[in-house]
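Please go through the protein record below and see whether the fold suits the sequence. Record follows.
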Amino acid sequence: MMTLTQLQVLVAAAKAGSFTRAAEEIGFTQSAVSQMIQALEKELGVCLFLRSRSGITPTSIGERMLQHARDILTITACMTEEANLARGLASGTLRIASIPSVASRFLPGLLGSFRKRFPAVEIMLLEGDSDEIDKWMSSSVVDIAFTAIPGRELQTMPLLLDEMMVILPDTHPLKDRATLRFDEIADRCFIMPKDGCIKKMLQENAITPAITFEVREVYTILTMVQEYIGVTIMPELYMPAVLPKVVAIPLDPPIRREVVLAVRDWQTISPLTAEFAVHSQKYVQAMEPFFPDRKAVGEV
């Protein structure tokens, strides 16, 4: 009969790409890992991995078995967490994914406040774009995610609205405008943040800048704007608390994106994940002094 240990070894081996590396990571011998995988293959009657000198690769049926194994391990972790919560011992592992703007701007404070409440909880954070986050969620790599364009198969909870801003040098003739239309800057060299979400939002709002540069690092973009190399449009959350010599002006008409919390199924999340979701909502609602012009989704 298969055991949870075998399933843990299966997941670890797939992640490591090698029985030897998996053994090192989980504290077993290479022989024990290999024997557990062989016993699991024998019980299931299928080949789970292709073996080669360069390592191991899951077969197609192996990939499906890995998904089931992750689900089973998630369920057992939920049982442990729920029992611990019932005993007042909040512990376990919380796996979070986030788009970069959230990860850099307010997630550190949110995680810090959550850790104060649950110091025994181990937190794992992955940063990626919306497509990467969808893959991590669908394969149960993470429990919950902060994202802006969630996949259709995910269930979401609105969190906040993030406004798109025009970024200009602080000595630009238009620097004192309350708002700016895109046609007022359309002839300028445009620096596009290397973020598919931003590009998609601009396209959906009929904004097609003549892209001169495409840059990943936000501070590099802001410094380029400061030096009059070009202008850009980016979400307010992208911008650091202390800006270089640039100004941020809202677009007219405004473009806002909704940042949401996403899970695979709200009905099956662990108590720890549910507690984190509620904590995140409360944290965002208390953010008004930090973002005085921003409202959490649902606020009047």
